[in-house]
Write a structure and sequence with these properties.
This protein is low in regular secondary structure. About 15% of the residues lie in helices and about 0% in strands. The longest helix is centred in the C-terminal third of the chain and has 12 residues.
């Protein structure tokens, strides 16, 4: 793989670690372990640098995170609320 960040490389603007799940193209909050790679050993902290051999830098596009946890809980409570 070319143009892949090293384990300890950081963003020059914000200081975020680049070789972290949150920066990977396989990261997806909507799937199991938040990773689309079924054989990846996924670390608990998705923001910290890791040693994943399946890491591929993402395209930098903003991901649609969908509704927040609080919004989902509110919707569920409203659905099951007795009138």
């Amino acid at each position: 793989m070319f143009n892949q960040p090293g384990r300890r490389e950081t963003c020059p603007d914000c200081g975020a670690e680049l070789h972290a799940c949150i920066q990977c193209r396989h990261y997806d909050e909507s799937v199991a372990k938040e990773c689309k790679e079924p054989f990846a050993e996924v670390p608990m902290d998705k923001h910290d640098a890791n040693f994943c051999d399946l890491f591929q830098i993402g395209d930098g596009a903003k991901r649609d995170d969908g509704p927040s946890r609080d919004a989902l809980l509110s919707a569920a409570e409203a659905l099951f609320r007795k009138h």
